[in-house]
Amino acid sequence: MENQTLLTIEDLSVQFVSAGVQTTALSGLSLTAKKGEILAVVGASGAGKSLLAHAVLGLLPKNAEVTGRMTYKEQALNEKTLPRLRGTEITLIPQAVTYLDPLMPVGRQVYYPMNKQEGRAKTAALFEEYGLSPEVMKKYPFELSGGMTRRVLFSAAVLSGAKLLLADEPTPGLSRETARHVLRHLRAFAKEGRTVLLITHDLDLAVECADRVAVLYAGTLLEIAPATDFTEDGAALRHPYSQSLWNALPQNGFHPIAGNMPSPGERVKGCPFAPRCLKKTALCWEKPVPLRPLRGGTVRCIHAT
Ligand SMILES: Nc1ncnc2c1ncn2[C@@H]1O[C@H](COP(=O)(O)OP(=O)(O)OP(=O)(O)O)[C@@H](O)[C@H]1O
Ligand code: NI
């Protein structure tokens, strides 16, 4: 049962049509998340991390065109099944803190799906664990700091009983210590056999907390690696971008990557990282590079061995 797949995404693409112009924000993304694991999704701002979470939940805006297949416990995720699964089986800790109802005290927003007395007690206990005083229960969202709001959103997700938690940047605005605390809770969540998709641009925290790490770049999944492969000089990693990202961390020498990630409107036919890659050859530009399994992970690079 340990390796049971909970979520499967196959060949997911998201395009936006705006003023007659079509841009591809996510292309050909495939991954699976297993029961009881924390799968981190890392990538720079604009890489497509939030879009992935929103696509899984069917929360993309109307001008988004989604193709590909997604299943949860072997049932297709679509307009028919999602309303039933959202919030009960699959839940989101949103990146934007505007998801709370501005007119309802935050305590009630956390416990309202439950019986009032039991819900209140559970919420109070959870708030205490997250360093939120009991008075916070009665406060309105506008009275909270960003970090407090995040902890409230996290409490709501934990109490929902969902089996799949999509945590979109749960740690910004938190001190390193509180961030670690939140991540410990994600680990406890996974230990109960629940699954976490941890979306973050903080590779360091991802490696510390997750079982596997998926690396997104310009809307393209470049690698999925066991977190333990992020070690030393990154030689165990499969994609040059993952290696560069790892070696750009201060503790790994702070080697910056020259150039910028292309925006959705300026993407190339082949590997999106090719323009910045030290291993590039003419072949990298020629045609789209497929994902392939390699050394216990997945990679999208023709040169990876
Ligand atoms: N409604 C939309 N219409 C058009 N383009 C969009 C829309 N929403 C997102 N995008 C584009 O899709 C790309 C990915 O956005 P996304 O929010 O997933 O990035 P992200 O990786 O979550 O970044 P961040 O770390 O900043 O949260 C961006 O280039 C963004 O401009
Ligand atoms: Ni985001």
TrEMBL record:
Q: Where in the cell is it found?
A: Cell membrane
Source organism per entry reads Solibaculum intestinale
- What lineage does the source organism belong to? Bacteria, Bacillati, Bacillota, Clostridia, Eubacteriales
> Catalysed reaction per UniProt?
Ni(2+)(out) + ATP + H2O = Ni(2+)(in) + ADP + phosphate + H(+)
What the record says about family reads: Belongs to the ABC transporter superfamily.
Q: Name one Pfam family in it.
A: ABC_tran
GO terms for molecular function, please? ATP binding
Protein's recorded name: Nickel import system ATP-binding protein NikD
Q: Tell me how this protein sits in the membrane.
A: Peripheral membrane protein
Keywords associated with the record: ATP-binding, Cell membrane, Ion transport, Membrane, Nickel, Nickel transport, Nucleotide-binding, Translocase, Transport
Quote the EC number. 7.2.2.11
Tell me where it mainly resides.
membrane
The ABC transporter domain is annotated at: 7-243
Tell me, how does this one assemble?
The complex is composed of two ATP-binding proteins (NikD and NikE), two transmembrane proteins (NikB and NikC) and a solute-binding protein (NikA).
